[in-house]
Amino acid sequence: MDLLHEPYVLSDEQIAFYRENRYIKLKQVFDPETLAHFNRVISEQVDRMHTDEVPLDERDTYGKAFLQLFNLWRENDEVRALVFSKRLAGLAAALMETEGARLYHDQALFKEGGGGITPWHADQYYWPLTTDKTVTAWIPLQATPLEMGPLEFSAGSHVIVDGRELAIGDESEQAIQQRLRVTDFRHVIEPFDAGEVSFHSGWVFHRAGANQTDEMRKVMTVIYMDRDMILKQPENRNQENDWHKWCPGARVGEVIDTPLNPILYP
């Protein structure tokens, strides 16, 4: 697992692309051996943590989108090695253009065979964070063709304010799609190669299609924020919940520095 500690150097062009579009897809972040290892480790951990057995056809749109398990790093030392990877965290700091990267939280997003769409949304609606110096690493644990529902982006849409106030659901899918239709932002829908990882910022709009196969679409994500990120007064109930769940003990107006939010880079 030496690869986890090896830097992945970005070109000036790649950083400029991210700055303009607020997403980027990077190939060969992980080799086949590393990817296979974490596919097995994370799949086993998800099996241990997942206890909701509600049938797919009885769930709402959010529930059909994926199985969602949080902070696996606290339950499994092997998962912790991935989440604490200097390779990933170094990429996050480079893309945020900050001196360091701190963990917000991790989550596994497993879209079941036959699982529904993930509606359009912007992640930062949920986060009580002062700035947009945030980035999510979206790590498919297998090659992800279009039929499995890879992540889609509206490139550069972080400048749009309309729709930021919407939680993930039927309303966000409809309202944000309608808003994006009358813009020139490119809708990026591409498969992911094995070992390819995407990074996106908190305010860029994104979604995922349904999983039209009978296989699980396995994805691990790590959410990073600026090392010096300050907690803001929550603006909605979801931000209030995130504060107490992912940054317990942090104080409004101060740097988020709790045992759940370690500095991962440098």
Put the structure in a nutshell.
By secondary structure, the protein is of the alpha+beta class. The protein has seven helices and eleven strands.
Description:
The strands form two sheets. Strands 1, 2, 3, 5, 8, 10 and 11 form a seven-stranded antiparallel β-sheet that branches. Strands 4-9-6-7 form a four-stranded antiparallel β-sheet. By secondary structure, the chain is an alpha+beta fold. It has helices at residues 12-21, 32-49, 61-65, 77-83, 86-96, 170-181, 237-246; strands spanning 23-26, 67-70, 101-111, 118-121, 134-140, 151-154, 187-188, 197-200, 206-208, 217-226, 263-265. The radius of gyration is 17 Å and the shape is globular. It is built from seven helices and eleven strands.
Layout of secondary structure:
Elements (H helix, E strand, L loop, with lengths): L11 H10 L1 E4 L5 H18 L11 H5 L1 E4 L6 H7 L2 H11 L4 E11 L6 E4 L12 E7 L10 E4 L15 H12 L5 E2 L8 E4 L5 E3 L8 E10 L10 H10 L16 E3 L1
Antiparallel strand pairs: 1-8, 2-3, 3-10, 3-11, 4-9, 5-8, 5-10, 6-7, 6-9
What features would you highlight for this structure?
single chain, 266 residues, alpha+beta, 7-stranded antiparallel β-sheet, 4-stranded antiparallel β-sheet, 27% helix, globular
Give the biggest sheet. 7 strands, antiparallel
Low-confidence residue ranges: none
Helix-strand pattern, N to C? HEHHEHHEEEEHEEEEHE
Strand % is: 15-25%
Helix content: 25-40%
Mean pLDDT: 95
State the shape.
Answer: globular
Secondary structure tally: strands: 11
Distance between the termini: 19 Å
Q: Structural class per helix/strand content?
A: alpha+beta
Task: Please work out how many helical segments DSSP would assign.
Answer: 7
Supply Rg: 17 Å
